[in-house]
Recover the amino acids of this structure.
């Protein structure tokens, strides 16, 4: 019912043969691959959560119509009141890759997931840092709505979206706006719009004056870029002077999808966990470092990484590399837990202390706060006996068959030991004593 | 001394007959005494001298950087040289700071400045006082034409042999750095020198001459002194990562053999170069040259390049199209002239370009943009490109048939006196100037103009040799043999005579006064 195609930009390399007249570049012209794009008819696979549930992921594919290389331009900012124009040339002349996707996506989240995957691929390849806030990756989203079975509707283009979150919002807003417009008997105009992140809506952009004749001409300074593969590579050429795609292909690093599959296979974690690891900057490395330094099983480590570490990082807008808890410290903590020296609730307390980043080791914190489990069986038995003696009513209930009440007793023992009792052990002792 | 070849000067420096500072002083004195010619825009006098002193120390230690250490050369003012102002003899660039790393361009070498800035006769002689050698550029003939008129050797190398990095672009698909020297051997020597010092490394200070005196037609030189070394990172020729159109292969510097036997040579005489307007004197010199080869036993064959007659027209279409695009960078925003107009940025751009470009440049920009309009593109630009291919193929066929080198005139006549020169409008003039030279640019082939004789007026006449792609060695070897046969007289300015006392002055001189 809804479809759109969009365009996104950025890359380091470029080589292409057309000049077009343009005012906001130092050379006075921009170079673009207008006639022969470097690649056509591709596809991009990505995964998408249904209803925001990590456990319900579907894999989707969007067709890539073409990839073309060009130069980025400067940015002009108009001050109408003073009829002044400020020109920002920071990105002018930088190589840029335009990826044109077919209208295969159907909502904001869908688009966001596809762009995120593409961003990861570009970062993995080293093509671009693809930091959207810095303009290294920008999205122009073309949105149209139509009834099933009917041709695509008139599309609008939301230009220069500079964050993945805004992309999802802008697309969803635009879809709703167009539906509303049509349902009210109006029409959708073929226009360019901008996303206003403060108001959360799209607004029409000032139109460029008339149709431009760009006066394209071949760029003589850049000879044609010929891409060979092992089959088409001519004999007796100097290999350093030609581009051999097969050669490059063999040397590509693992792409995100391969990385995820390897994580699942190697550590036995769930596929959705591998997504989070790969999608969060530096989190895979952090996870693998912790796994190397601890006896705890990766399956258990992942829980700490995803629920405890990641939520803290997110709260403070940090990346894994900026974490105040190093992989070494976290591994130390998990080792204490794994060896049964502390309870998991104590471990959470230690984690909170570590997060403060005061330079203490997990063991020091455990000692200081007296969080180690009571290992002395006799001491535990005494405490349990004391609880049983105090709670005749509960003991009666249990003996009458209401077994669940034992949990209350366990809770009381833990309170008495301030969490330092191993709940399993306590349960065993209590059961033993009550059955006597 | 200042008449000697690079090799002779180099030998004199090595043997201590001459020191770099002496040489530098003489060159500077010569430039000063001929200042009325307005050949030089910028003379980097102080640094030139400082560099000379350093070179002198190296010679004293017996460790010169290379064959050309301590020898000054001139550079056309459309190269960006580190630390020296580049003006292109244009208003557009007059405020350009020396720190610019950008390529920039304006009144354009081939395009010629407005008429107040030019004096044909002065120009004619200007290259004579270029102390030893000069680096020019050649888009349609701007190295070979002045060389022919000034009685020096002008080499336009194969397109892609020498990096254009640092050369302000006029027509990217045809521009080549050109080499002007006193003799053919020197041209080969300059081909072999390193680019490093010219384009990138040296930091010069400079003193500017009064700009009101700018004038030359073809070449405006910066006089600078640079240390040349043959052992640093390759040569002037060869691949440069900063110019993707340069050849990938490594260039091997060469010295020219002295041919004794030319019987194995096939010299082609393309009949299309017999154009209307070719002066009888040039025609006579051309025939004489052909006979010279024939008599020495070479095969001299009339050949045909059928599409060459369309070349000049196509050249103008392609040239203006590229000029329109290359001139777009002069908007006054980052460097060069900027108008005071401040109503809006658009109006500032417009006023800057209106004020900065003269009629000739404006005319080229407008026609170039016209040819590139969507409705005209196929009819003009694409067609001109197709004809360009045919022109290049003509050369390929002729060379494929066994011809080694083509022999043609360089110019229609000897230099035109100033009063006649300014009668024609620029387009007509440049059509005449480049008619015999631009086909080599269209085809990217190496060509060299060799001084051949003096006209009845006593002005130099040059003939052009066009060679196979990247066969500079073969081309120059033939040119060297020819140069030896014709014994072109050394032309001496009175002013030069005064400066030029002493060593190595054994050649005969013809004089201007």
């Amino acid at each position: 019912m809804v479809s759109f195609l969009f365009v996104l930009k950025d890359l380091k390399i470029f080589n292409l043969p057309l000049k077009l007249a343009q005012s906001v570049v130092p050379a006075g012209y921009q170079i673009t691959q207008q006639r022969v794009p470097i690649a056509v008819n591709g596809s991009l696979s990505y995964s998408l959560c249904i209803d925001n549930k990590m456990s319900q992921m579907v894999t989707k594919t969007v067709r890539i119509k073409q990839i073309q290389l060009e130069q980025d331009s400067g940015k002009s900012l108009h001050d109408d009141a003073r009829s002044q124009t400020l020109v920002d040339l920071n990105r002018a002349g930088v190589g840029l890759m335009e990826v044109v996707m077919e209208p295969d996506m159907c909502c904001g989240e869908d688009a966001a997931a596809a762009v995120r995957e593409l961003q990861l691929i570009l970062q993995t390849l080293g093509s671009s840092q693809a930091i959207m806030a810095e303009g290294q990756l920008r999205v122009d989203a073309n949105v149209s709505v139509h009834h099933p079975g009917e041709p695509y509707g008139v599309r609008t283009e939301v230009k220069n979206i500079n964050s993945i979150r805004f992309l999802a919002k802008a697309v969803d807003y635009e879809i709703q706006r167009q539906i509303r417009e049509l349902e009210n008997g109006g029409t959708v105009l073929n226009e360019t719009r901008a996303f206003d992140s403060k108001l959360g809506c799209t607004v029409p952009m000032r139109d460029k004056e008339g149709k431009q004749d760009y006066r394209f001409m071949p760029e003589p300074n850049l000879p044609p870029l010929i891409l060979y593969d092992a089959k088409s590579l001519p004999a007796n050429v100097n290999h350093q002077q030609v581009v051999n795609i097969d050669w490059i292909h063999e040397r590509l690093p693992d792409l995100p999808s391969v990385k995820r599959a390897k994580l699942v296979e190697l550590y036995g974690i769930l596929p959705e966990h591998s997504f989070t690891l790969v999608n969060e900057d530096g989190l895979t490395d952090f996870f693998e470092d912790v796994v190397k330094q601890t006896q705890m099983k990766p399956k258990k480590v992942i829980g700490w990484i995803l629920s405890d570490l990641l939520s803290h990082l997110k709260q403070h807008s940090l990346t894994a590399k900026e974490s105040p808890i190093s992989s070494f410290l976290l591994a130390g903590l998990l080792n204490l837990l794994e060896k049964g020296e502390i309870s998991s609730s104590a471990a959470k307390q230690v984690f909170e202390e570590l997060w403060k980043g005061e330079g203490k080791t997990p063991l020091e914190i455990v000692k200081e706060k007296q969080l180690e489990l009571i290992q002395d069986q006799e001491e535990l038995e005494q405490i349990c006996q004391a609880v049983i003696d105090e709670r005749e009513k509960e003991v009666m209930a249990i003996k009458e068959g209401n077994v669940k009440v034992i949990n209350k007793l366990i809770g009381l023992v833990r309170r008495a030991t301030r969490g330092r009792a191993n709940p399993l052990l306590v349960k065993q002792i209590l059961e033993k004593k009550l059955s006597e | 001394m200042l008449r000697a070849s690079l090799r002779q000067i180099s030998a004199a420096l090595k043997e201590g007959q001459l020191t770099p500072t002496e040489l530098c002083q003489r060159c500077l004195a010569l430039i000063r005494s001929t200042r009325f010619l307005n050949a030089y825009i910028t003379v980097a006098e102080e640094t030139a001298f400082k560099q000379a002193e350093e070179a002198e120390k190296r010679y004293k230690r017996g460790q010169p950087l290379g064959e050309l250490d301590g020898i000054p050369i001139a550079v056309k003012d459309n190269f960006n040289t580190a630390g020296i102002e580049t003006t292109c003899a244009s208003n557009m660039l007059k405020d350009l700071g020396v720190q610019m790393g950008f390529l920039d361009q304006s009144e354009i070498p081939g395009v010629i400045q407005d008429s107040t800035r030019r004096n044909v006769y002065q120009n004619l002689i200007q290259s004579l006082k270029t102390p030893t050698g000069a680096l020019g550029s050649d888009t349609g003939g701007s190295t070979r034409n002045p060389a022919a008129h000034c009685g020096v050797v002008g080499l336009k190398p194969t397109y892609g042999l020498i990096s254009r990095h640092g050369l302000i672009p006029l027509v990217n698909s045809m521009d080549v750095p050109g080499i002007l020297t006193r003799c053919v051997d020197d041209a080969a020597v300059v081909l072999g020198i390193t680019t490093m010092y010219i384009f990138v490394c040296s930091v010069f200070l400079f003193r500017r001459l009064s700009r009101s005196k700018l004038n030359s037609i073809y070449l405006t030189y910066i006089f600078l002194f640079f240390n040349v070394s043959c052992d640093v990172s390759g040569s002037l020729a060869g691949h440069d990562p900063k110019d993707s159109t340069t050849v990938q292969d490594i260039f091997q510097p060469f010295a020219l053999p002295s041919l004794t036997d030319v019987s194995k040579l096939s010299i082609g005489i393309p009949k299309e170069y017999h154009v209307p307007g070719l002066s009888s004197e040039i025609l006579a010199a051309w025939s004489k040259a052909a006979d010279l080869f024939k008599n020495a036993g070479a095969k001299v064959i009339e050949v045909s390049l059928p599409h060459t007659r369309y070349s000049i027209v196509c050249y103008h279409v392609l040239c203006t199209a590229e000029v329109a695009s290359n001139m777009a960078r002069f908007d006054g925003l980052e460097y060069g002239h900027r108008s005071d107009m401040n109503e809006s940025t658009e109006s500032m751009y417009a006023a800057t370009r209106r004020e900065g470009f003269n009629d000739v440049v404006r005319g080229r920009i407008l026609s170039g943009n016209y040819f590139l309009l969507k409705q005209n593109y196929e009819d003009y630009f694409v067609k001109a490109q197709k004809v360009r291919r045919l022109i290049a193929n003509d050369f390929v066929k002729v060379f494929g048939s066994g011809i080694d080198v083509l022999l043609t005139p360089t110019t229609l006549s000897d230099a035109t006196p100033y009063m006649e020169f300014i009668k024609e409008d620029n387009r007509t003039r440049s059509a005449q100037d480049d008619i015999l030279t631009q086909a080599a640019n269209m085809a990217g082939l190496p060509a060299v103009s060799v001084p051949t004789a003096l006209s009845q007026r006593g002005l130099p006449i040059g003939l052009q040799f066009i060679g196979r792609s990247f066969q500079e060695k073969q081309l120059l070897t033939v040119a060297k043999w020819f140069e030896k046969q014709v014994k072109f007289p050394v032309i001496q300015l009175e002013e030069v005579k005064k400066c030029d006392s002493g060593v190595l002055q054994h050649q005969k001189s013809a004089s201007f006064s």
